[in-house]
Amino acid sequence: MKLLVTGGAGFIGSAVVRLAVARGIEVINLDKLTYAACLENVAAVTQDPLYHFEQADICDRAALADVFARHRPSHVMHLAAESHVDRSIDGPDAFMQTNIMGTFELLQAARAAEVQRFHHVSTDEVFGSLGPTGQFTETSPYDPRSPYAASKAASDHLVRAWGETYGLPVVISNCSNNYGPYHFPEKLIPVVILNALAGRDIPIYGDGANVRDWLYVEDHADALLRVLQEGEIGRSYNIGGENERSNIDLVRDICALLDEKRPKERPYHEQITFVPDRPGHDARYAINPDRMRRELDWRPSVTLAEGLEKTVQWYIDNPAWWQALQDRDGVGKRLGEGTHGA
Ligand code: NAD
User: Fold this and answer.
1) What is the pLDDT of residues 22-55, one digit of tens each?
2) What is the pLDDT of residues 267-303, one digit of tens each?
């Protein structure tokens, strides 16, 4: 297998790149290097002869043709995307370009190159919002609510259409919220850890009752390679961590871990501050993982408590990584209140 990974300098893509190279797979990491990218994330494999890097935009047809012609990948795993819901509310343009048109260009390039497998990595947010009960399955209706979720839903539809119409050998996976090492410092869990450590307010949107189903990123990378290699063509797979937690409880868990690891005079939970909610904030996501368990014999290896402990420790041990990212455009600012216009 020769695997082209798009978005391999991002959070999840870099975990896939590290794991694939460690398993002896030749990887081409194609990434535009947007504000969300960090090549430090793949420093562990940069010197490995199995690893190649190409800076390119998935919206650039000529650049894609060139990369496919030079590397001749047999498999594609597509993770490149604009991924931050709050940014999609303030500035949806880049989301439509990269997530929809970029996916279209990549499908065309993969089709021309006759790849053996095209794996599209998507989100459970395409299914909308759940009430207090129930779970998303692979047959849940699409009901995206944010510009980000709508752009990902569109890309899922394109991928399925390229499978049906052109016979491109596609698989899709839809996963729940990821967390773990190298998570960009604008997303909830790193924001909580870094604000807590800095003595700043820890912002919680609304009343904090929104529930997410948390998936440890290294477990996700393992699941993705399983879907890529063993998934049935034309099928989609929901990947979840079986770890539902409300935002407020999650933040309290992180504060308790910091109280143990970095004790100070006042407990960290006293820094929690409730801020106005995100417009259209989905109430609850939960993944039914039966298909991954039954058909691909996959399940997560860590509980949320174990994964959070590793994550908090990683941020404590790696300040150089996150300090360098805190100066990037928009990081540390409240985005997505719906008041900034398009
Ligand atoms: P990320 O924002 O950390 O990384 C995205 C990467 O894509 C960056 O390295 C960026 O430079 C690259 N990129 C963006 N636009 C590009 C373009 N036009 N051409 C080439 N590269 C480009 O994202 P992530 O959290 O690692 O998410 C990866 C994928 O998984 C995305 O498709 C996302 O929708 C999906 N996903 C993420 C989560 C999550 O919890 N993070 C959950 C479900 C699904």
Assistant:
1) 999 999 999 999 999 999 999 999 999 999 999 9
2) 999 999 999 888 878 889 999 999 999 999 999 999 9
- Catalytic residue IDs: 124-125, 148
Architecture of domain 2-183+214-245+285-302: 3-Layer(aba) Sandwich (3.40)
Residue 265, Cβ neighbours under 10 Å: how many? 4
Q: How far apart are alpha carbons 178 and 171 in whole angstroms? A: 20
Q: Is the CB of 33 under 6 A from ligand 1?
A: yes
Q: What phi and psi, each to the nearest 5 degrees, are found at residue 77? A: -120, 120
Share the mean pLDDT of the chain: 95
Residues 6+ apart with CB under 8 A from 244: 211, 212, 213, 214, 284, 286
The pTM of the full predicted model, rounded to 2 decimals, is: 0.96
For ligand 1, the distance from its centroid to the CA atom of residue 318, given in whole angstroms, is: 22
Task: Say yes or no: CB of residue 210 within 6 Å of ligand 1.
Answer: no
Domain residue ranges of the chain, discontinuous segments joined by +:
2-183+214-245+285-302
Question: φ, ψ for residue 31 (rounded to 5)?
Answer: -150, 140
Of 4, 6, 11, 95, best ligand 1 pocket probe by most atoms within 8 Å of the beta carbon: 11
224: tokens are 């993705």
Please compute Rg for the chain using Cα positions.
19
Question: Is the shortest distance between the CB of 109 and ligand 1 below 6 Å?
Answer: no
